[in-house]
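Exercise 4. Each item below gives a protein and its sequence. For each, produce the structure-token representation.

Item: Glycoprotein-N-acetylgalactosamine 3-beta-galactosyltransferase 1 (Anopheles atroparvus).
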Amino acid sequence: MKLTDLGPRNGSHSRTFITLLFGTVLGFMFATFISSTTVRLPEYYRQREPPTVVSDPHTGNDLREAAGPEQDVGQHGAHEEAHAHENASLAQQLQREVRILCWVMTNPSNHKKKALHVKRTWANRCNKVLFMSSKEDPLLDSVALPVREGRNNLWAKTKEAFKYIYQHHLDEADWFLKADDDTYVIVENLRYMLYSYSASYPIYFGCRFKPHVKQGYMSGGAGYVLSKEAVKRFVENAIPNPQCRQDGAGAEDVEMGKCLEAVKVLAGDSRDSVGRGRFFPFIPEHHLVPENVDKDFWYLQYTYYTPDEGLECCSDNAISFHYVSPNQMYVLDYLIYHLRPYGIVAHSQPLPKKLSFGEIVWAKDATIPPKECPQQQQAGTLESLEKSEKPPNT
Ligand SMILES: *[C@@H]1O[C@H](CO)[C@@H](O)[C@H](O)[C@H]1NC(C)=O
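Answer:
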């Protein structure tokens, strides 16, 4: 093309107009032809979830229902500027010492929509991950458990999942986390909390709820983690125990709480050293922003420890959030593992001290006379019980 062709010349305007008109008419005819013909798209495209394209998405809510991205969002190189200066040696040490198997509750209709985005984000950081479904799927390497799907089969599925893990993977980890396909977990912080405990203690942790079970139970959505000993007791003693619900129905998390109590698995205290929560049944926004919810919201009646408002709600070493949309999994991954305020370098606080089982049970056992436990006031009221829940020196 000669340079002179680029400039506007007399006569070229009408030619451009005719070309444009011709193109428009041709395009319109082609579009009419396409839409009037039944076009069989390849299987892959027909299976696709229609992406939620909001014409002008301003708030996070607009995209809350959006299907996660088809393509992975990619990775930053480990040697580029910011990441080259990271020191993950402590996290790597804990990865070896506090081995976690994560199993994710999912179902065939969520494999691609939700579970895939769990796999691409936080689940990678577990020592081992299993997607528990009722269908095998190479996308996730999912396990096909012999259960029917649906909310009313979740309890059956949880029992089958732990039986499967007990039979095939018990030696591959020390701790066993159950999460949903809309739970987001900061695995390093889970290891940090668990470091104080031996996996030979019968204990489990999560977002602790008060009703239905004497020692409380852990909310299903925020995820809960069982020690190896707790898994053994659950599969060997609880599942066959008539005190434990034998059919597959019921609220999965409540039934789990009852069964574990029946085989003397302790409901642990997952709050941090200053009493802030670490497992959350909602997205961060929900816990962080005060007056977001009604005073008679069920969560406030259910929660075992009275939650503090505002920034006091949540530990800097929080472990899990629930109802995280597929897109938000990637957002949290970015905020937690990438975005850094330049010039502020965090050094990890020292590892917590290992607790003996006695130290954990100590404050929980309200039958111990007060004189044997010097720091305990008269046990009895729920409030004093709650205060004493915290193991000493943590
Ligand atoms: C990384 O941190 C560990 C302690 O967490 C320290 O011992 C080590 O020297 C650090 N490495 C570098 C390269 O700074």
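Check: The first strand starts at residue 100 and ends at 105.
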